[in-house]
Design a protein that fits this description.
The chain is an alpha+beta fold. Helix 1 packs antiparallel against helix 2. The protein contains three helices and three strands. 35% of the residues lie in helices and 15% in strands. A hairpin with a 2-residue loop joins strand 2 and strand 3. The radius of gyration is 16 Å and the shape is globular. It has a three-stranded antiparallel beta sheet, with no helix packed on it. The protein folds into two domains: 76 residues, no CATH class; 41 residues, no CATH class.
Length: 118
């Protein structure tokens, strides 16, 4: 897996499990961060959490890549100063694009005063 490719497709592990307990702990921490301070990582964390029970080396490479992103963007923030405070909402769906499972992917975004709130 190329760690610089943003379009890398993670696949189910068909080999040996690599440190599953530590992987699960990191995913739990990332979920907490995603819910309370970093909504920008929600999609990646959701994708990585699919492999919590059976991670492999490629999943670990993706987590390391996410950690580097978090390190490089830890001084970023959201300033809620838009006036008037208008709430906007958008949604999108991608039907059955996952090669391992026959499931669709959907997402949404809500913006208040020009800044993401959900």
């Amino acid at each position: 897996m190329n760690t610089h490719d943003a379009n890398t497709q993670l696949k189910k592990n068909k080999g040996e499990v690599v440190t599953q307990l530590e992987y699960a702990r990191i995913i739990r921490s990332l979920m907490h961060m995603m819910n309370f301070t970093r909504p920008d990582i929600a999609y990646v964390v959701r994708r990585l959490s699919r492999y919590t029970q059976n991670p492999n080396h490629e999943h670990w490479v993706a987590i390391v890549r996410l950690m580097k992103y978090l390190r490089d963007t830890m001084n970023y923030g959201i300033l809620y100063s838009g006036f008037p405070a208008i709430l906007e909402g958008y949604t999108n769906a991608n039907w059955i694009s996952d090669s391992d499972e026959i499931k669709s992917t959907s997402g949404y975004i809500f913006i208040l005063g020009g800044n993401v709130v959900s």
